[in-house]
Design a protein that fits this description.
single chain; alpha/beta; Rossmann fold; 9-stranded mixed beta sheet; 13 helices
């Protein structure tokens, strides 16, 4: 047994008071008045032994009562472990306010239960102790020690947040703050549902801080979430039906039936229907999206699920271009077949230019650049084409019979891509294979019938292949060599044809069922499709076209209620945007220089990590961390103040000593009243 305030034990000197009273009171003589000697016989004789025994028992009760009161003021306790220290304490309380804490614990959410337990923990300590209240937000107001009343006020202000932190980072933050206190004892309390992904405490070692784990568990582990959504095609086209794929997951242990899925687009709620999601699994559902206008589109997916609702909504944004712009770079004259291929569809706009009069600054306005039999690729043009591809553009090269081998080699090595080799002027080669698994020819033909006429090259170049240059053949000759190849370069594609475009060497242009869809799909292809949605809290790298000429331009972002200046960096023709912690809620965020001219719309959603329903209960925490941490299982206890106090200070005994003091005083009273000397 130890004492919280051992200085009070000096009050045991007060035991001398009952002894002094005993010596002076019980040794006084009692007068007996009588008028006749006969009455002396009626006086009851008292034996010296009985009198002394009663007096000693009364003295003992008084001494014990005083001693019990002194012990009670010294606050004795039985320490639960050797780390319990006396004196002032610094207490850090972490309250997990992530979205998983929206789960129900009987009639209240886990977050409300955590706030209640936090108040009880604060009440279990003395008013002069130091307190820190911490959440996943790591806000500035939580990075300091406060008094008891301020701690209670901070607890009342805590609300749900999209922020998530691992418990290891929480303990490190608590450790730094508690070290600023002069208190003799540092204590940490972690109030959480202890999702498995966040529990990274296996390697935690710190003897300067006593850590207590306080698990809170929902009554029912059930949650359906919309995990992600994406378009099957990388580019959304006007007046076309686009297929949107939706992934729904069931994080619970029971199958979910008749989950209603809705799609909001263009101000209309379009019920998709109901789906069944297996327990612990997921399904993929598809939605046909009709695009009736150009520009930016905002869309939203919704399901109905309770009680965890943050992951029931999924925001998307996508852009539909007014036109697909194609640039054809010619040496002497344009190709009539290329012009005719795009002439019938107004959605495509073809611009023919000569290689000597190019405006490189306009390359970013095109989706496809066709190099039509250029004998020489200047270093400037080669560099701009490389940057165009790396930034997401597509380049199709038809070689010239009189090409400069050195210029082309330098151009292709920079990507890298296969080089053009020897020119076979008198060798005819028949194309025999088409790669229908690749985007350019996927879904173009219902079936490759024998009636389909494939291109014939009357003269062509050989490709010098390299193992480190990832070629994807699109059309091949009968000997297995490539007629048309694709190379994925960063965000764009480089397409190389083995034969010149001129009909004298290559009849590809007269095979309309192949040539026309090939050009269309190349113009629409993207190595990296536009991201329709982003997740809050991740290290997102947003991009947009830089429309200004100066690097000092200040871009702004915001939703309907907020506006902020994001982190921004100009890299060539792009502006790189970083949102950090400025995006706090899901929805659509617009980027602009002038507020009435939206440059881009980004859709943000809450991170789905909190959708997981895998938690560590008190027994699992005890088995895993019981040797290093204290696990406090409050279960459904109405008030946990006493339990918290016992855990932090040991088993308090002062109440028992007060009871004993009252008991000894009661015995003394009974002795004096009923034992007549």
């Amino acid at each position: 047994m130890e004492f919280l305030y051992p200085g009070f034990l000096l009050a045991l000197l007060a035991l001398a008071i009952p002894i002094i009273l005993h010596l002076f009171y019980f040794r006084r003589f009692k007068k007996v008045y009588f008028t006749n000697v006969r009455f002396l016989k009626e006086v009851k004789e008292q034996t010296s032994a009985r009198s002394k025994l009663r007096n000693l028992l009364v003295l003992l009760m008084r001494l014990l009562a005083v001693a019990m009161l002194v012990f009670a003021f010294a606050q004795p306790y039985l320490p639960r472990d050797k780390s319990v220290q006396q004196g002032r304490k610094a207490v850090s309380i972490y309250i997990d306010n992530s979205f998983s804490m929206e789960g129900k614990s009987q009639d209240v959410t886990l977050l409300e239960k955590a706030r209640q337990r936090a108040r009880e923990i604060v009440a279990a300590f003395d008013p002069d102790d130091d307190f820190q209240i911490l959440t996943n937000d790591f806000e500035g107001k939580h990075q300091r020690l406060v008094g008891q009343e301020d701690a209670l006020a901070l607890i009342d202000d805590i609300t749900s947040s999209p922020a998530t932190e691992t418990l290891g980072s929480v303990l490190r933050r608590q450790q730094r703050i508690l070290q600023t206190s002069s208190a003799a004892d540092n204590l940490s309390y972690l109030l959480s549902d202890f999702q498995e992904y966040a529990v990274d405490l296996d390697n935690w070692q710190d003897t300067s801080m006593r850590v207590s784990l306080v698990p809170l568990q929902a009554v029912q582990e059930r949650n359906i979430s919309i995990d992600s959504a994406w378009f099957e095609e990388p580019v959304q086209m006007l007046q076309q039906t686009n297929t949107l794929v939706v992934k729904l997951s069931n994080k619970g242990r029971e199958a979910a039936e008749n989950v209603r899925l809705s799609f909001f687009h263009e101000g209309q709620n379009k019920p998709v229907g109901t789906v069944n999601v297996p327990a612990g699994g997921f399904i993929l559902d598809t939605i046909n999206v009709s695009v009736l206008r150009t520009g930016w589109h905002e869309a939203r997916l919704e399901i109905t699920d309770y009680p965890i609702t943050f992951d029931d909504t999924y925001f998307l944004s996508f852009y539909v271009q007014e036109k697909i712009n194609i640039l054809v770079v010619n040496e002497l004259e344009s190709n009539a077949y290329v012009d005719a291929a795009f002439r019938g569809i107004a959605y495509f706009s073809v611009d023919n230019q000569f290689s000597r009069n190019l405006d490189y600054s306009r390359f970013k306005d095109y989706q496809l650049i066709i190099c039509n039999e250029l004998p020489v690729l200047s270093s400037g043009l080669a560099f701009e084409l490389q940057q165009f591809v790396r930034n997401g553009g597509n380049v199709l090269v038809f070689p010239s019979v009189n090409m400069s081998a050195g210029a082309y080699d330098n151009f292709l090595d920079a990507f890298p891509a296969n080089r053009y080799g020897a020119f076979e002027a008198e060798v005819e080669k028949q194309v025999s294979g088409i790669n229908t698994e690749e985007f350019v020819f996927r879904d173009v033909f219902q079936s490759l019938s024998s009636n389909l006429k494939l291109p014939l090259a009357k003269a062509s170049f050989q490709f010098n292949g390299f193992m480190d240059r990832a070629e994807e053949p699109l059309m091949t000759y009968r000997d297995g060599r490539s007629f048309l190849s694709k190379f994925k370069i960063d965000k764009g594609h480089l397409y190389l044809c083995a034969a010149p475009l001129d009909i004298r060497f290559n009849d590809l242009v007269v095979n309309g069922e192949i040539f026309v869809p090939m050009l269309y799909k190349m113009a629409l292809s993207r190595a990296a499709a536009e991201v329709p949605a982003w997740f809050i809290g991740r290290d997102n790298r947003l991009e947009a076209d830089h429309i200004g000429q100066s690097a000092d331009i200040m871009y702004r972002m915001g939703d309907q209620d907020t506006e902020f200046i994001p982190e921004q960096r100009i890299v060539g023709s792009k502006v790189i945007i970083g949102t950090g912690e400025q995006v706090r809620r899901s929805g659509w965020y617009r980027l602009w220089l002038e507020k009435d001219k939206v440059l881009k719309i980004f859709a943000f959603n809450y991170d789905r990590k909190e959708s997981q329903q895998e938690f560590l209960a008190a027994t699992a925490l005890q088995q895993r961390f019981g040797e290093r941490f204290s696990v406090i299982d409050l279960a459904d206890a109405a008030v946990s103040t006493d339990l918290i106090a016992e855990n932090s200070e040991g088993l308090s005994l002062w109440r028992w000593f007060v009871v004993l003091a009252l008991l000894f005083l009661a015995i003394e009273t009974l002795l004096l009243r009923f034992w007549k000397a």
